[in-house]
């Protein structure tokens, strides 16, 4: 049941969740009304995901990695627009981390990773206000020639 | 669903009886490698599914453009990026398909290029695309088992992208008057 690499991938996802829990605290602080409610809901979702990963690691006999005392935010946040941008970045990192679980061969971990990539993509699309073709996948992971196919021009 | 999808799945399944038959030879079953990597069958199914979505979106957009009054501009603007993302999915999936030498590959697009039947009324067309996205996202997840690590990541990412299209279509549906042809 303990596939090599599984613990590392779970710890990486947990580290991303710790960062997201911290980050959404910042995001929510700069938002009001419905946006703030959405940020709070996402903050709770990341806390739940973090708890689930910690339980999974413990059940495998591994000590879950702790949250850092503070995180260097990827962008400086002083406005609501920047707070929304931070939420998008947090979700993109979360999706990438969970794709690490998808790369494992254990079916349950693969499925869990895929479901979390989907949840993250849905949250990211909400904050971004638009969708992307490859949530969580970096440009380097894509093989097709980059011809900016996201532009919906007829070929 | 799509004929190409079904054919690809059947093609993938057809590889299994070969193993079962050679199982009569006992240990030999391990000696004869499969004729094609499991990824090939999964990829062909995924490509067929994306191809179908692309043709469905294109057909809906064509219908909107020809529906007089220029079609609902907001709906067209909502659908075009989604079509672009499906084209990107298709291009990436195709780039991963490395067909082993000597294996017969089905003609890729002979069938899929035929225009699929899509509802003419905008509201019905959006509901149709919504159902197609949900089915495609679920089918993409079902291909995770047995896929190589990097292909599984691609399938999961594409499935997630398709899941995000559903709320976009829900928003678009709210902007479309329910009566047909409006």
Structure overview:
The complex is a heterodimer of chains A (155) and B (182). Chain A is an all-alpha fold. Chain A has one domain: Ferritin (Up-down Bundle), CATH 1.20.1260.10. Chain A is built from four helices and no strands. The radius of gyration of chain A is 16 Å and the shape is globular. The model of chain A is unreliable at 147-155 (pLDDT under 50). With 182 residues, chain B is an all-alpha fold. In chain B, 37% of the residues are buried. In chain B, helix 3 (38-65) runs antiparallel to helix 4 (73-96) and helix 4 runs antiparallel to helix 6 (149-175). Chain B has helices at residues 3-22, 28-31, 38-65, 73-96, 122-142, 149-175. Chain B has a single domain, classed as Ferritin, CATH 1.20.1260. The A-B interface holds A 95, 99, 102-105, 107, 110-111, 113-114, 117-118, 120-122, 124-126, 130-137, 141-145, 149-153, 155 and B 80-85, 87-89, 91-92, 94-96, 137, 141, 144-145, 149-150, 152-161, 163-165, 167-168.
**Spans where pLDDT lies below 50 across 5 or more residues of chain B:** 1-26
CATH architecture title of chain A: Up-down Bundle
Let me know the average pLDDT of chain B: 79
Number of strands of chain A: 0
Would you tell me which CATH topology of chain A applies?
Answer: Ferritin
Assign a percent range to the helix content of chain B. Answer: 55-70%
Helices and strands of chain B, in N-to-C order?
A: HHHHHH
- Chains forming the largest contact: A-B, 38 and 35 residues
CATH fold call of chain B: Ferritin
Task: Give the total of domains of chain A.
Answer: 1
Name of the level-1 CATH class of chain A? Mainly Alpha
